[in-house]
Amino acid sequence: MSDVAISLRHVSKRFSQNGGPAAVGDLTLDMRRGETVVLVGPSGCGKTTTMKMINRLVEPSSGTIEVDGTDILKQNPVELRRHIGYVIQSIGLLPHRTVRDNMATVPKLVGWKEGRVEQRIDELVEIFELDRELLERYPAELSGGQRQRVGVARALAVDPPVMLMDEPFGAVDPIVRERLQDQFLHIQEELRKTIVFVTHDIDEAIKMADRIAILNKGGVVEQYAPPEEILREPANNFVKQFVGVERGLKRLALTNVSEIEVEEGPVVTSGTSSEDALKEMERFDFHWTAVVDEGELKGWVDVPSVKRVRTVSEVEPRPFSAYVTEQSTLREALDSIVTSRTHVAVVAIEGQRYKGILTLERISREILS
Amino acid sequence: METINQIFDFLTDPANYEGPMGIPTRFYEHFLMSFQSLALGTLIALPVGLYIGHRRRFEFLAISVGNLGRALPSFGIVALVYVFAYDLPGDIGFWPTFIALTLLAIPPIMLNTFVGIKEVDRDTIEAARGMGMTGREILQRIEVPLAAPLILGGIRTAAVQVVATATLGAFTGWGGLGAYIRDGFAVRNFGIVGAGAVMVALFAMTTELLFAGVQRVVSPRLSSQRPRWKGFRSPIGPEGDVVYESAGSGR
Asked: How far is B249 from A41, CA to CA, in rounded Å?
């Protein structure tokens, strides 16, 4: 099987016959298997049109589209759609059917037996951490977040390899949206579907995408690259403007502490003599040092407290009010730096194992690189 | 007071319940005529309404016919058809009445069906299409069930109008309960006229109640909390949204 799951070749769409502007002019895009591709751009850029051509809710005016190497324009559109997951912003659950029946819609269309449908619904309930009680409810009785999750679960019912999602989290409030995004990222990590995701929100795009296609009017691809690259090297002014002023900060949110080299900082064990501890602090020009016992981070001691004793063990180390882990983003590390009195972020792994420190200089070097 | 007594006497006299001019016969004629014209009217209006609503084409046709239906005087239609249908075979007066009533039944059914289908949430339809439902599946499984209360509302309106208007058939030579009104006038017996009017009114009201019941039964369930016959709310919205004024929705 080839690496490319969805391939658009010179695809165009004109809605008006007599030479009006094309919604999509001449678009060529390859989407890799198991990746989330986010189509993002201002309204009128043809992102939704492009997405809908993949399941032929919109028929392309010209060009070819292949899904898994098959020319979809030669397929029966109804058959095609039954094997591509589809989620829209308003979800569109059937109001007169229970959640269970809604989720069973596509399995029943493709002719699954009752037992298999039931089994699959059980799986979906588990994957999406849905309350089983919800199954007998009607859509009008669900909260916005529940409706959204049921909508995504329904789209995954026959386990389609490809999913099309048009602003699937657009209709809920920001807090719920973030939770849904996190949950979906988590699920996608397991399922590795090929996802075409449409949004107008660049932050959502950066968060959800393996690859972002930034579209301009008429479906012109201004840049097609991983989020990190788009933030680091915006291809042109349009991308730069669209991505916005906080490019640096947005990039920090994309990088984990584990991806960069942390710095060495002052560190002593409780057995260290106070003389050596003071030397250690001097070496880094710090007035405090981390205290570690058998690799475990105990806290910190400062110059005045060490001066009063002979060995560090005589001082009760004070706990760090905050430290970051390897899974933290650089943005979180930056927050830790600017809010700590010492302007240093301490990095520990797996909870308490000391790793090193991060300073403002180190992080800004990362942004500039 | 005199007339009310006469009406009461007429309705309680066992002699009036016998023979070809008796109340059961007249009622049966009235019922059959109403039923037949309502059935034909539904047969014509329902598919047309479904088609227009589902395909969203020729909407102006549905609206024009609906408005035309409201503007046409029923008696005018009866009289007009009488002129043209006089020579048709069958009982005297049957065809004019039947055709007029059928024409009367079509607009509310067609308009309500069209509006009911059209008003089904577009996003629900879009999602269904995206999931791979065919047009027929969408119509059968989504549009018709959701529009059912409104469609039934149209049939209910039509039925009541047909039952009430069937009375006019008596004036073009046909029977039915209207015959009492006609004959009562002829002999200047207002007791008979009143009895006929009361029976027509009762029949029409019974029809209304009967269809209201059916309407509730066909209303889709939208909540697990309460059974559908309590607190049903039309998925289409308040009655005010419907362009045809007498299109009732279940409640």
From this structure: 43
- Taking each helix axis as running N to C, give the angle between helix B144-165 and helix B94-118, from 0 to 180 degrees, rounded to the nearest 10: 150
Neighboring chain A residues of B133 at a CB cutoff of 8 Å: 78, 105, 109
Asked if the Cβ–Cβ distance from A138 to B125 is below 8 Å, we say no
Contact A88 B123 (CB under 8 A): yes
ipTM of the complex: 0.77
pLDDT digits (tens, 9 = 90+) for A120-167: 999 999 999 999 999 999 999 999 899 999 999 999 999 999 999 999
Given CB atoms, is A195 within the 8 Å cutoff of chain B?
no
pTM of structure: 0.79
Is the minimum CB–CB distance between A137 and chain B shorter than 8 Å?
yes
What fold, for A258-368? CBS-domain (3.10.580)
CATH class held by domain A4-254: alpha beta
> For residues A268-285, b (16+ Cβ closer than 10 Å) or e, as one string?
bbbebebeebbebbeebe
Q: What is the mean pLDDT of chain A?
A: 89
pLDDT tens, residue by residue, A160-217 = 999 999 999 988 888 899 999 999 999 999 999 999 999 999 999 999 999 999 999 9
The matching CATH number, chosen from 3.40.50.1010, 3.30.360.20, 1.20.120.1200, 1.10.3720.10, for B24-229 is 1.10.3720.10
Backbone angles phi, psi at B52, to 5 degrees: -65, -40
* Residue in chain B nearest A87 by alpha carbon: B127
Residue of B nearest to A160 (CA): B131
